[in-house]
Amino acid sequence: MVRTTHVTVELAPDRVVGGLGIATSRLIAQLERAGARSRVLTSASEHREAPPSWGERVDLPTLGFVEHALEALARDPPADDELLVVHESAALLPLVRARGIPGRRVQWVHSLYDTPLPHELPAACQLVVDPDSALASAIDAADLVVTSMGILADASEVAWSGMHVVQAALLRAAARGATRTVEAHQCLPPPIGLASPMPDALARPRVLFPSRSGVHKGIGVFLAIVEALADLDLEFFAIGDPTRAGIDPSRPGAARVRWLPWLAPAELDALMASASCVVVPSLSEGFGLTAAEAAARGLPVVIHDIGGLRSLPASAATIVALTLAERARLYALWGELRRSRSAWACWDAALPDLAGLVARWTECVEAKVRASPIAPTPRSLGPADAPNWGQALLEWA
Predict the structure, then answer these.
(1) What's the pTM value of the predicted model, to 2 decimals?
(2) pLDDT band for position 338 (50/70/90)?
């Protein structure tokens, strides 16, 4: 029996800040159904009972999570042939390798978040991790890097200004045969059904931004669309607190948006089912789980072809095509966000270069909301026999 140890700061249903907690939980469930047993090191929450199928769960303090995870692995290390799967927490794998902790190291690249090196790590540990990119260090330390075909394609096709260290690490991993690609649709629950729309659905056409309200998720594109379509009788919805996201209430478009609190997955499903258009204009996505779920349910979702979003077929989503220059500019903007204290200053500086892209987005959204509503029908996003994430990992093991 294959045994896996997972390290994740998020885990559904206990702690879900974004798609990471949901994706990690689904992966573990897939592994369990395939006969693998899992140990999960995760951040402490008020929910202490692990689901019965998960062999073991270890709750760790959220503050200083990487160091606590390292100590837990040193006390009870994986077996030599055990899979040690790290989800985000990019500083961990290089430290695991440096300390000689056994196991087959897997870095699951759910996103390109590359946060600064945690200050709570001892100085000796900080010498092991590239201070410019913990994610690049993790990729170099991994025996296997799991990412999407779109991320690898982008790394091969355009320069990632400000993120060149991560780009180079991904290309090195691919060159040594240490990458495995999976896509968002391989993480969807089987079967994925239709969600019931909200009771007041379609009172007016609705445009929904279903992601966190950050510049990296494309909220700047969304607000530009809102402002451009101000003359139409539409409702615009976004998730999150605009104040916490640093959105000035006077920013064009912001006042016309209905900002909703963080929603449980079922609530978000109902909101997406009531939308005339679901927009996912992220600067990049590791996999793009939200877009894939909307597309699989037959909902009218609009994306642009970058990162993990590139796996969605044109039959399931409306795709705003990017030029190579626009794709490179989005990655450059991502790199600028890593170093800047003002995400919105970065967005405002990039907007002139992306004006054509925003105009095409606006045209697509307007066409969607003017079109007659079509009853959603579940769609296939890939081959029916494609392995799920868990099966793909076990095939490598």
Answers:
(1) 0.93
(2) confident
Helix H or strand E encompassing 355: helix 355-370
Name the strands in the sheet holding 206-212, side by side, starting at the edge strand that comes first in the sequence.
257-260, 235-239, 206-212, 277-280, 301-304, 318-320
Distance CA 251, CA 101 (A): 50
Angle between helices 149-157 and 164-175 in degrees, nearest 10: 110
Contacts of 237-241 with CB under 8 Å at 24 or more apart are 237/206, 237/207, 237/208, 237/209, 237/271, 237/275, 238/208, 238/209, 238/213, 239/209, 239/210, 239/211, 239/212, 239/213, 239/263, 239/268, 240/212, 240/213, 241/213
Q: What are the distances in angstroms from CA 292 to CA 108, 136, 302?
A: 18, 27, 11
Q: How far is CA 314 from CA 188, 211, 237, 300, in A?
A: 19, 21, 25, 12
**Which residue, among 330, 363, 361, 362, has the nearest Cα to 347 in the 3D structure?**
330
The residues, any chain, with a CB within 8 Å of residue 35's CB and separated by 6 or more, are 1, 2
Max CA distance (Å), the chain: 63
Alpha-carbon span 19 to 168, nearest angstrom: 26
Determine the straight-line distance between the first and last CA of the chain, rounded to whole angstroms. 11
**pLDDT tens column, 354-378:** 999 999 999 999 999 988 777 778 7
The order of strands in the sheet holding 3-8 is: 56-60, 37-43, 3-8, 83-87, 104-108, 144-147, 179-181
Element (H, E) at 22: helix 19-33
Short-list 90, 53, 58, CA closest to 74? 58
- CB-based contact 222:245 (threshold 8 Å): no
Q: Which of 193, 357, 351, 363 is nearest to 277 (CA)?
A: 363
Cα 280 to Cα 276: distance, rounded to the nearest angstrom: 14
- pLDDT tens-digit map of 49-77: 555 556 688 999 988 898 899 999 999 99
Q: Is 220 exposed, middle or buried (0-12, 13-18, 19+ CB in 10 A)?
A: buried
Angle between the 389-396 and 19-33 helix axes, to the nearest 10 degrees? 60
Q: Which of 66, 60, 61 is nearest to 126 (CA)?
A: 66
CA distances from 17 to 89, 213, 239, 360 (A): 14, 12, 12, 30
